[in-house]
UniProtKB/TrEMBL annotation:
Stated family: Belongs to the helicase family. UvrD subfamily.
Stretches assigned to coiled coil: 492-539
Organism whose genome encodes this protein: Geomicrobium sediminis
Official protein name in the record: DNA 3'-5' helicase
Domain UvrD-like helicase C-terminal: start-end pairs: 301-562
Catalytic activity entry: ATP + H2O = ADP + phosphate + H(+); Couples ATP hydrolysis with the unwinding of duplex DNA by translocating in the 3'-5' direction
List of residues binding ATP: A34, S35, P36, G37, S38, G39, K40, T41
UvrD-like helicase ATP-binding domain location: 13-300
Length: 700
């Protein structure tokens, strides 16, 4: 029996003609360009299986790299599912970083270079890249760097190194932090001069040095080239220039290189991925083959058609027409809620109804969005799995400010706390006054003490007002306390001014404030509020242990790449979130925002909901476009002759027609759910109410 037939029997997947061609083309360069859900990862796995089982290639001779550790794990898992009983030794799937690190280690060993990693677990902690950059920023500006600024700086550095930007070109790289270039230069110098014996290395340096090793150490290069007869890379649209070059060096001179990519899913260009290099494949390998896979196996026709038309607004792309033979499915829902809480409540209500919760994903652009969802889920006792655990929200300056306002209200003599907030409320306190208070130390109410000093006329009443406000705060519920902080003490205005002055992202800061208000709503005391924040942080951290459980997945759009779910909720699709203000001003960023939205949509198999809040005027400008694309032909259910099934019709042995799965017989009915045995799709379980409300079933 031929390989493909055997694989169909053991995995249930019969590859299509293009996929088969991609598997059979083992020798020479191949670029496999493909649409979402077209089976890139499936084909790559089948190809590796083919190399092992049919061509009898040793697993150690295959270099299989992917973009992230999570993607490498997913790929290894899928490979295990397909081939666990067929191959004795698995292929190692690794990230390009871990691969590069192996090269660097042998390179440095040969050159007797000591090195220290300054990312990951670093001891002492001040040697960590983040700490070093914070210090270098302070040295340069005399100020403390904010989290947002630090992120911009780190992104700038990654971009420069991954794109192999030469020093004389640095000023051309955009960064919201104007000191970025100077700090980058100082950072490189600090690493070089740290001590004579040791080289400091960050993760991006691994790539730079690995490439240097391949260029300058012929022995290392030859050894790798000899070892790897076949080189395959998945998600290659996210590889940076230096990463592409490393892979290409190792694959040469045989060039048995299979590059799998979808330029429309390239969403890491902001930190240096280089899809342009990929698109010049033919000029690098004139004899190379390019295969295009556009049949989507994952999603309903509705989703495929809308996503396919949406992505065409981008100009910088390979022309592809994604299509599917899947059923039309159910309409895409686009909803805009007045209030964010209402939106979250709506998502929770529908998630609660789901039996198969691991087929549900809640996706968002920013990690901050996750906090409100986690809060709501925890209140409802719904467990979840988080794809990426980012707890920066709990240490963001807005969160810290609010907690400090509350803390200070308990003891207005705590000048050490006041120091962090005195410039963020409307008492117009001066630096000198704060300095004087700090010298005086903790004690009586700071405002009362200031009243005894020489004050500007306008300060007298302002300080009294501030004292009254702080005296009130600790007797209020957290929600009311935040209103006093925002309005009476003018924190919201101060926040806007601070963002304006320091070039910080004001929308991000307001999002955090709004999320904090949401969390505060269900709490009675300020202590309860602070404890709640701790609980949510710990819940998030614990959520990684729910992997594989029957729980919904929470993820950013970025981290959801490569995944698929029956139901996908894309939340917080608001103006200035996707696309952001910066995206609006830059055509390249705008195209990336479009791709990000596209990646989100194409994660859904059947059910896709696009949700925003703040009313239609606040919704993402992508949503009106999507609404236009939801033409009646793509969204309405195919016409069915029978009458819609009502609750009382849902009885065992009744034959029904489902709009997607066709004719079937109800075989089991429980209080909320029922099981239907379909003629062509086997047994499926449904929520009764959902089927009835949506009119998904008709009587036969
Ligand atoms: N020939 C095929 N026949 C039936 N199903 C297939 C076939 N090829 C792939 N699939 C199914 O299609 C779905 C998508 O496949 P896969 O995840 O490999 O796509 P992908 O191109 O890597 O997707 P993305 O780029 O969106 O992450 C999977 O459920 C897979 O089992």
């Amino acid at each position: 029996m031929d390989y493909f037939k055997q694989m169909e029997q053991s995995t249930g997947v019969l590859l299509n003609d293009i996929q088969k061609q991609a598997v059979l083309k083992t020798d020479g360069p191949l670029l496999l360009l493909a649409s979402p859900g077209s089976g890139k990862t499936t084909t790559l796995n089948m190809k590796i299986g083919y190399l092992l089982l049919e061509k009898k290639v040793q697993p150690e001779s295959i270099m299989a790299v992917t973009f992230s550790r999570a993607a490498a794990e997913d790929m290894a898992e899928r490979f295990r599912q397909f081939f666990h009983d067929k191959v004795s030794r698995p292929v190692q799937f690794s990230t390009i970083h871990s691969f590069a690190f192996r090269i660097v280690k042998s390179y440095f060993q040969k050159k007797s270079i000591n090195y220290r990693l300054i990312e990951g677990d670093v001891e002492p902690h001040w040697l960590h890249k983040r700490m070093a950059l914070q210090q270098l920023f302070t040295n340069k500006t005399g100020k403390k760097i904010t989290e947002d600024e630090l992120e911009s700086l780190i992104t700038y550095i990654s971009y420069v190194k991954n794109r192999m930007i030469q020093p004389d070109q640095l000023q051309k790289v955009k960064c919201s932090l104007k000191e970025a270039k100077d700090i980058y230069i100082a950072y490189e110098e600090w690493k070089r001069n740290y001590d004579d014996q040791t080289l400091l290395l960050d993760f991006d340096d691994m790539l730079t040095y690995a490439y240097e090793a391949l260029l300058h150490d012929k022995m290392i290069l030859k050894k790798l080239q000899k070892q790897y007869d076949y080189v395959l890379t998945d998600e290659s649209q996210d590889n940076s220039l230096v990463q592409h070059k490393i892979v290409e060096k190792i694959a040469s001179p045989q060039n048995n290189l299979c590059v799998v990519a979808d330029d429309d899913q390239s969403i890491f260009q902001w930190r240096g991925s280089d899809v342009g290099h990929l698109l010049e494949f033919k000029s690098r390998y004139p004899n190379g083959q390019v295969l295009t896979m556009t049949e989507n196996y994952r999603s309903s026709k509705t989703i495929v058609q809308v996503a396919n038309t949406f992505i065409k607004r981008n100009k910088e792309r390979y022309r592809k027409e994604m299509y599917t033979v899947n059923d039309i499915g159910i309409p895409i829902e686009v909803q805009s809620f007045k209030k964010r809480e209402a939106k979250i409540r709506y998502v929770m209500d529908t998630v609660k109804e789901q039996v198969n919760r691991k087929e549900v994903a809640i996706l968002y652009r920013n990690n901050n969005s996750a906090v409100s969802v986690v809060n709501a889920m925890d209140r409802l006792n719904i467990d979840f799995y988080m794809k990426e655990i980012d707890t920066k929200f709990f240490r963001h300056w807005v969160t810290t400010d609010l907690l400090n306002f509350m803390r200070f209200s308990y003891h207005t003599g705590r000048v050490d706390v006041l120091e962090h907030i005195y410039s963020k409320f409307n008492a117009y306190m001066k630096k000198d006054q704060m300095k004087w208070l700090l010298q005086e130390g903790r004690g009586e109410c700071a405002f009362a003490r200031l009243q005894n000093t020489k004050l500007e006329a306008y300060q007298v009443s302002k300080l009294k007002q501030a004292k009254r406000a702080f005296d009130k705060i600790n007797k209020l519920s957290p929600s009311a306390a935040i209103t006093v902080i925002e309005d009476d003490l003018g924190y919201r205005k101060a926040l806007e001014q601070r963002c304006e002055r320091l070039g910080l992202n004001v929308d991000r800061a307001k999002e955090i404030l709004d999320a904090l208000k949401e969390i505060a709503e269900d709490e009675q005391t300020l202590k309860g509020f602070a404890d709640r924040l701790k609980r949510l942080e710990s819940k998030m951290k614990q959520s990684k242990f729910n992997k594989g459980e029957n729980v919904p997945t929470l993820s950013t759009f970025h981290r959801a790449k490569g995944l698929e779910f029956d139901r996908v909720y894309m939340i917080d699709l608001n103006r200035d979130i996707l696309p952001t203000k910066e995206d609006n001003d830059d055509p390249e960023l705008m195209e990336e925002a479009v791709r990000l939205f596209y990646v989100g949509m194409t994660r859904a198999r059947e059910h896709l909901e696009l949700l925003s809040s703040g009313g239609v005027q606040k919704e993402s400008p992508f949503l009106p476009q999507i609404k236009k694309l939801i033409a009646p032909s793509t969204v309405t259910s195919p016409h069915r002759a029978g009458t819609t099934v009502a609750h009382e019709d849902l009885l065992p042995n009744t034959t029904i027609e489902h709009e997607k799965f066709g004719i079937g017989t109800i075989i089991d009915v429980k209080s909320d759910t029922m099981t239907v045995d379909f003629e062509h799709h086997g047994e499926k379980e449904f929520i009764k109410q959902f089927c009835v409300e949506r009119g998904l079933l008709t009587k036969v």
